[in-house]
Fold each of these.
Amino acid sequence: MRAAAGCRGVLHLRPRPPWRAPPPPRPPATTTTTALLSHSAPASRAHHRRLPKGFLPTLEPGVSAVYLCRRARSTTCSVLMDDRSQGELDGAKGEVRKHETVGAFQKIPMVMPATDILMSAQRKSRNVPPTKGIANIAKRERNKGAKQLDALMKELSVPLRTYTENFPKRRDLHPYERSLIELTFGEGYYEQVLGRIDTLRKRITSVGKQHASVCAKSTTKREAEERLTEGRKRLEEAFQHGKHAIDDLVNVAKALRSMPVVDLHIPTLCLVGSPNVGKSSLVRILSSGKPEVCSYPFTTRGILMGHIVSNHERFQVTDTPGLLMRHDDDRNNIERLTLAVLSYLPIAVLYVHDLSEDCGTSVADQYITYKHIKERFGDRLWIDVISKCDLLGKKAPISLEDADEEVAQYRRFGPEGALRVSVQSEIGVKELKERVHQLLTSQMARIKADKAEHETQEAGTSVP
């Protein structure tokens, strides 16, 4: 130090490098581990170099910077978690899988009509002042024009970005809700509408940036005003050209929010049967649901929900569209809604039969449909109900002879153990309510058992 000072030299002192935690000891590397870690090491070091100054010293001793890369490593695989922290790691496949729950439709954002978005954007952008302190008139005008065009662009595009980001992706939905989207709007329509919204957003952003840049290069006040007017016109034209996508999204959001909410943890009774056999009438006497009751088929065109409160317990009841006798591939979307409920929801089945044929469907056709559904979903808890029992024998049957002995047996007695009910004459209604309560109580026990089994499996897979 003295020698350097006497020679009038300058001593350059380098700052002490920040403390770095030593890396944790590595486990013995297998062939697969060595290959994966060597492949990911450059990316890890590159990410380390981009850390802000002074960040590493804040780490506690023994904490490795590799955790900042959000990598999950094991002796067999290395999975980059990205931004998917809400998922869960499937140990068998090494993939990130989101929890499948229902209720996503009630969380979608409110969609403003295109006219309201445009009027709000115009009003807000016109109130944007130039930057303070600009004395030159031309500079002040071009600054104001560029800022107002930028504000108009953002006011038009930000809502569209919100919609595309906050509407659920189909792949993240519960299978039941995925089916509802497909059967309600048709295959691919939901994604198509969101894609058009995103295309409109990109178009508005491109036009807005282009005209804001041009306006910022104006040399005179008049030129800046003209370019501001032209930019507004082009932005509004671009928005008007794609506003039909917003109108379509408004309808999609309205339809999705109106769909019934199903709680997977509450036992649900699902009424199934041919059209017009009396399912809706039974829903009205069993629950709080008030579906339309008419004497023509396919009155129920969607999934209708009601609730039962019995002995301080709460249950759900759903009315489904009727099923005709035909192959599943030939069913319309209304019938496929019923199959979606049976396939994807933990429900108990109340199957309704009309042996009087007052529904317009022959006993033979009802039997074939019933046999198909019973074979396919026979693992569900089940009650068979013969409705309109007061009409049995009072109406001439549609088909007088039954070639099949099984159909003849079904015509006389219905399925084994079926309960005969008449809503009009109140026959068997009290017994039906008791049977339904017993069925749903059993369904509650099954749901709890399945939940406990699932938690046990998760606990087992999470143990290293």
Amino acid sequence: MVATAATASFLPVPSPDAGKGKPKGGGGGGVSVNLGGLKEKQGLCGCLQVKANAQAPPKTMEKVENDLPWLPSSSISHAPRTFINQLPDWSMLLAAITTVFLAAEKQWMMLDWKPRRPDMLIDPFGIGKIVQDGLVFRQNFPIRSYEIGADKTASIETLMNHLQETALNHVKTAGLLGDGFGSTPEMCKKNLIWVVTKMQVVVDKYPTWGDVVQVDTWVSASGKNGMRRDWLVRDAKTGEILTRASSVWVMMNKVTRRLSKIPEEVRAEISSYFVDSAPVVPEDNRKLTKLDDSANFIRTGLSPRWHDLDVNQHVNNVKYVGWILESAPQPLLESHELCAMTLEYRRECGRNSVLDSLSDLSGADVGNLADDGFFECKHLLRLDDGAEIVRGRTEWRPKPLNRNFGHVLSQVPVPAEST
């Protein structure tokens, strides 16, 4: 029974009624047909059924019909329309979803999720923030490669620029910045600007390339018509104090170029930001003497360039520091570093001015400055007609040996001259 069923699945079994009532040689499903030398397989048309794959698309049945043109279409049974064979082809959708997930996984793996070091959490590029009950402004600065000098440390002018930048950003962040350069709205209405009259700076340590410094600044009252601004500069990573500075500012009418009292409207704007504290640098009350042509070192013919002017059309006060040091003796610059500075600003300087820089290093042998010791210099910056711009005094300490420029040069081997 089993064998018969198995055989029937491969070989057609003639129908019991096959050939009855049909004359030999006639047409019909049970009549022999000449197929070009091929033997007839009885019951082929009546018993052979082609079953289509239920999962195949409709094109499969059309292909079968095209491949078997000698079979009557009525002899091919089509698969019934069911839920399974009416489902769409999900392969394209699955491939698209897989592609999206693989791309997302790649982007996720490219992200750096490593924990950051504490020094990497500092944002050195922001404009700073108000701290300590809204009275202190704080801003970070990275020391860049173009801000260091031959001794691999930040220059004094770089530090002075940091002080000036935080002062302006303090006014801006507090919402007091008008149309002018550091002027409040009421000051702008009255054509008033701030000008510095005195600056004291003490440098305990110079930062180097790659360091990040944190600058805190705040303001206090100075007499009836002045304002004092203090700065404290720290290493942002260690908290070590690097620089302290204190300055006194007064108001000047930018039209008449004359000093002015603080109007009550302006005082009402700024008085709530004043801090009742002593100067971060004790005031140096020693008189700054005037130098004359008998000074040890004189540099003449200095003149401001266009980019030395600020928006108030006068020379930026930081530029004066560079001009003062133009006349400092070169051996002093190589073997010592500036550790303290006191400047008194007496007159502004315009774009067409021509200046002289005078320095006097008293009680020192310029040719023997490499010896350990502290030195003091007196400075004067004047117009070519003799009018004073800035009087100053600087103090110098020996550089560490690893940053002594002259010491380094003496250790560099010089190639022998070829003969």
